[in-house]
Amino acid sequence: MLICYGTSTVVAFKIFHWTFLQLPFTPSSAIGIAVVFYVGLKNSTAYERLWEARNIWGNIVNYSRQWGVNILNLVGPYTRAVQDGIEKPEHQPNEEEKNSLKNTQKELIMRHLAFINALRYQLRQKLWWEQEHKEGRKIAADQGNADSHETLMGAISPYLSIKEAQSYEHSPNAAVEILHRQSKEIRDLWADRWIDSFHHTELMQLVGQFFSGMGASERIKTFPFPRQYATFSRLFIYLFCIVLPFSLIGEIHKELPEAIWLVIPLYVTIGWIFIMMEVIGGSSENPFENAVNDVPISSLCTIVEIDLRRMMGETDLPEKPQPHNDILM
Considering the entire predicted model, what is its pTM? Predict the structure, then answer.
């Protein structure tokens, strides 16, 4: 488009002698400066949304590892013995108690994996105002990423019992209900004296951190980038690209009339830079769209799963996420 438009203006000036197409450079420079400031503000705001989303999920990853450590080290018969005033408990849990404890710990950790995957699934659901034919989305689909075709049951069923997973199937917010279930399980552990009050408070604070991370992610997901910035920055760039070749013709014809054809490559280069500034900002507006530049929450969920399963002593672990064509989803 830029090549055709730039070439047509030069041909009209040089071949058909439409000398009125010459403009001083002042209008284009004034528009260009305004566009740079406006697009810069837009891109800065869009990048802040992307970076905030990455920080939120970085905290979710860190708190998830802390959750696994606390569940495996704070829940157990040692805590009950300490509550009974025994500093070094001599009683060793029998095999039934060991299995019950191990199952309880595994259930809490696996339910947490269900939570982060339910949150991932919910964030990847397309809202009505998100872009329908975004190029990045097409590229993401080409990578074989199945997130866009996944169901809620497919996301959480590997980590929960069939009965529990089905209880969330028609939930409007499965991640919230999973965290609510976690909080009740923690309460029951405290009531059964498998954890003391301090540990109960600490675990509940982690649940609160997961609620905060989920709420912050939903805030970015459900509140669109202000359309006035996105729409008008594009219009301003179009206006600049329309005026620019006339100013280049006037300037180059005045200084180097024999090199008037240089207007075409100069115009294409400058116009392409401004358009790419707009495209780059637009690609960062919605960091959970599952496009190539978005936060790789699928990979982060897999990393958390690998870490927590290794803490439990499992050896059959998922493969570490690898980029496909330099793209990590």
Answer: 0.83
